[in-house]
Design goal:
- The chain is built from 3 helices and 5 strands, in the order ββαββαβα.
- By secondary structure, it is α/β, with parallel strands linked by helices.
- It has one domain.
- α1 runs parallel beside α2.
């Protein structure tokens, strides 16, 4: 079953991107950090959507909404 991988507080480089791609079930990647150009290229080649520099605040707000 496809899922979205979430990474926080790091630079997502090619080594980690390869590990994510190798899982085979990832449809998207969100990170609070930066994604290198090489990693973006690998995600593009494997049809994996990505978003970088997502503020941690976004995760906290949605968690609060789910609990309420």
């Amino acid at each position: 079953m496809p899922y979205i991988e979430i990474k926080t507080g790091e630079i997502l480089g090619l080594t980690l991107a390869r590990k994510i791609v190798a899982k085979g079930e990832v449809s998207g990647v969100l990170t609070t950090g930066r994604i290198t150009d090489q990693a973006k290229k690998l995600f593009d080649e494997n049809d994996i959507a990505y978003a970088e520099n997502v503020p941690e605040k976004e995760f906290m707000e949605s968690e609060a909404q789910e609990e309420g």
